[in-house]
C-alpha cells in the first residue's frame, strides 16, 4: 500500500555547496540518498514529493560540514499481509516463482499456485495449465495476494499466493508482444 | 482435590498418543518378543495409582526390567508428562521414602528393608505432573488440529522447507536466500543440501503428487483425517473440558511430598516412633535430604517475663543504694543539671513508676526494657573502668610478681564491685536529686535516646571528672 507521509532526516552538506543554490543541492542530495531505500517501519521510499522545511544548519567542528534537519514529504510503499498486488514474474523454478512489485520481492511457492498448473522445465521454465491456455513464465504479469511478510530493518520480503479467485496471470507476454 | 478425573485424562491420553510407542532403539530388530509397544500405557496407568514412586519399586511392581522402565520414563520426561528426581542416598535414607509411601493411601508396602549398606546409591523417583500433562495434551491436540487444518486449506500457509541432511528448517520467507544459481531447487545454507518442502510428507507420501487427481484425493484424505481425529479424540477432549476448572492435584517436589506424607502418616497413626525410620536415620545423614519433619515450630513471645525482670532489676538496683563508696561520690557529683534531672527522672521511673505504670501502657514496658539494657551497659562499663584503673594502679606499683594474682583478684572483684559501682552511682544520683529536686525540670517525656546519650556523657565524664568537681564545689 502507498502512503504519503512526512519524514525527517539530518542532511550533511559539504561546504563546497554553500552558495546561491544551496537549497537545490540539499534537495537533490536528499533525493539521491533517500529514494529507493527501505525502512522496516515505513516501507520503501518511492519518491520525494516536496520539502516541508529545512531547519537551521549546524556547522560541524573540524570538518566544516553542515547538518540540516530536513522535513520532506514522500511516497512510501509498504506491503501488508492480505494485500493484493500486481507483480512481474522475475524467475520461475520448481519451487515456485519470484515476482517483483516495484521494489518488493515476492515469492510464490508451488503450493500456492493453483493445483491445475504444472511446472514445465526447459529453456523457459513456466507453470502451465493442462490445456495450455494460461502460462506463467518470466516477465508475465500476475495478480497475487500477500500472505506473509518478513520485515527487516532494511529489507521487506513477501510471500504471495495466486491460489484464489481472480488471482493469476493478467497479461501474458507471449500474447501481448 | 480429586485425582480421579485427572487420572482418567492421563489414561485417555496414554491410549490416544502413547499406544504404539516403543522405547527400543531403531537399530534393534523388532522381533515379536522384544516388541514392547504398550509399555508406555502400562507405566502411565501404574503411575496414576501412585504419587511419587521410586523407579526400582515401580519396576518391581510392573515386573519390568528397570532399564526398560527407565527408558520409558525418560521418554515421558521428555514429553513433559512426568517429573523425575534423582538423589544420592543411603539405604536408610531411602527408608524415609518407604515410610512416606506407607503413609499414603494406597499403602504400597514394599519389602525393601534388607540391605543396610551405608553406600550411597543414586535413586530415581518419578511422579506424574498433572498440571503439565493437562497443558501438554491440550497443546498436542491444538497442534494436530492446526496442522491438519493448515494443510487442508493450504492457500494461507507459509510453506516450510526442511533440509534432509542437517534437519534445518526454513520458511518460504527465506526463499530469496535459498535459491541457487545452478539449479532450480532451494539449497540449505549450512550444508548446501537440497531442501524438501515439508508439508508434502504428511499426506502425500504414497501418491506421487503431480496429477491433479492426486491433489484432490489428498485433500479428501486430509478432511477425512481431521474428521476421524475429532471423532476419535472426542473422549479425550471431553475429559479435558471436564478437568478444566478442577484444581490440579499437586504433589510438589519429592522432598516436600515426603515430608507431607510422613507427617500425615504420623498424624494418622498417632505413633511417631515405631514406624518411623526417619528418626533412626537422623544421625546417619542421608545425603541431600533435609531433616525429617519435626512438627510445626512455634514461637511464643511472652511479654510478662520482661516486666518481671524489670521489677527484679529495679528492686535489685534500689535496695542496696545506701552504701556509698567515697570514690564514687566524687565521680557522681560531676553532673550537669539537665543530666541530673533526666537521671532523676529515669530513676523515678525505675524505682517507683515501674510497678505502677507498667499496667497502663506498653510503652513503659518498652522503656523499662531499654532501661534494663542501659543498666547492664552501665554496669559493664563501670566494671571495665574499675578493672582498668586497678590494673593501672597495680602496674604503677611495679610489683610484677604479684600482678598476675592481682589481676585475677580484680577480675574476681568486679563481680562484687560492679554492683557497688552502679548502685553507688544511682545512689549518688538520688542524693543529687534530693539536693536539687526543685531545680530539676520535669523532663518527663524525654526519649530513650536522650538517656542513652546521657549515660554516655556520664561515662565519659567519669574520666575527666576532676575539673568538674572543682567547678561544682567552687
UniProtKB/TrEMBL annotation, chain A:
Principal cellular location given in the protein's record: nucleus
The organism of origin for this protein: Nyssa sinensis
Domain S1 motif: 79-156
Membrane-spanning segments: none
Primary role: DNA-dependent RNA polymerase which catalyzes the transcription of DNA into RNA using the four ribonucleoside triphosphates as substrates.
Similarity comment: Belongs to the eukaryotic RPB7/RPC8 RNA polymerase subunit family.
Keyword Transcription (UniProt): yes
Name assigned to this protein: DNA-directed RNA polymerase subunit
Positions of the RNA polymerase Rpb7-like N-terminal domain: 8-64
From TrEMBL, chain B:
Record Pfam families: TFIIE_alpha
Compositional bias annotation for Basic and acidic residues: 337-349, 359-373, 389-400
Gene Ontology CC annotations of this record: transcription factor TFIIE complex
Compositional bias of kind Acidic residues: 429-439, 462-474
Residue stretches of biased makeup (Polar residues): 271-283, 403-418
Transcription as UniProt keyword: yes
Keywords linked to the UniProt accession: Coiled coil, Transcription, Transcription regulation
Region (Disordered), start-end ranges: 265-288, 337-373, 389-474
HTH TFE/IIEalpha-type domain segment(s): 6-138
Residue ranges the record marks as coiled coil: 219-246
Signal peptide residues on this chain, from the entry's feature table: none
Protein name as it appears in the record: HTH TFE/IIEalpha-type domain-containing protein
